[in-house]
Amino acid sequence: LPRAALSACRAMVEVVKVLEDNFSYILYDKASRVAAVVDPVEPQKVKTRADELGLKITAIMTTHSHWDHCGGNAEMKTLAPGVEVYGGVGDKIPGVTREVQEGDTFSVGGISVKTLFTPCHTAGHVCYLASIPGEESPVLFTGDTMFVAGCGNFNDGTPAQMYDALINKLSALPPDTKVYVGHEYTVKNLMFAAAAEPDNKAVAAKLQWAQAETVAGRSTVPSTIADELATNPFLRVREATLRAFTKKEDPVEVLAEVRRLKNVFGRGGRV
Question: What is the mean pLDDT of the chain?
């Protein structure tokens, strides 16, 4: 977004790099200074940044139960007493105070947050869609369901479940939705995307951009739903190029094969 547009936004996102390649986020209402923290696995680092921004943390939004996303919840609760801890139904999130499922909503200041239930990577994985009603582009936190140009492993689910999450739910969001993901895997994901669709100019251009951003020490978030539809092979499973790449026709089978091929890509496997 242009700088002027960014300064006018009320729903703000602060990116906090944590661990080796994880992202935590601070979602806050610029007007009220009320904030929620997303997957604060390094709580003190996240709290320090929130304090620097003059924010009051009222909630923890946990995408899923893997330690590198939920492992900071207990400490975060001590650093921000009284916080509500949101997590997906059945995902056994540490410290959870409110389990959420498809369509559940809550507020962070004037920001409305809607839950998208996206089980597969874990049994109760959720994504969070945040917006100021009637204003601005929505903001999506995808955890490990979707990465920039990638998606999470199907640890606790089926290809059909991931298809439902990626195609029926995330792909259907407004194209200008800003996408904040769980890990900085972008360059490797786009290298695979380029192997899957060697004639896709959007993939080639974004790979070049992502490599430059990484060399410069910058993050590759946010993406947008429009960008992902143009470059993410896991969202492009209905395209003829991906059917040819996988030698499958049914889009759920295409998705399963793209996942299998991605798993071996760069590990001695060939595409």
Answer: 95
pLDDT band at 267 (very low <50, low <70, confident <90, very high): low
pLDDT score of 43: 98
Burial class (CB in 10 A: 0-12, 13-18, 19+), 168: exposed
The DSSP secondary structure of 204-261, one letter per residue, reads HHHHHHHHHHHHTT-----EEHHHHHHH-TTT-TTSHHHHHHHT--SHHHHHHHHHHH
Q: How far apart are alpha carbons 61 and 51 in whole angstroms? A: 18
Q: Give the pair of three-digit tokens for residue 205.
A: 């251009």
**Beta-ladder partners of 38:** 25, 61
Number of helical (H) and strand (E) elements in the chain, helices listed first: 10, 14
- What CA–CA distance (Å, rounded) separates 215 from 221? 15
Residue linked to tokens 């920001």: 111
CA distances from 108 to 138, 141, 182, 192 (A): 14, 14, 20, 37
Distances (CA, A) of 35 to 2, 4, 228: 23, 22, 27
Give me the active site residues, please: 64, 66, 68-69, 121, 144, 183
Phi, psi of 156 (to 5 degrees): -125, 25
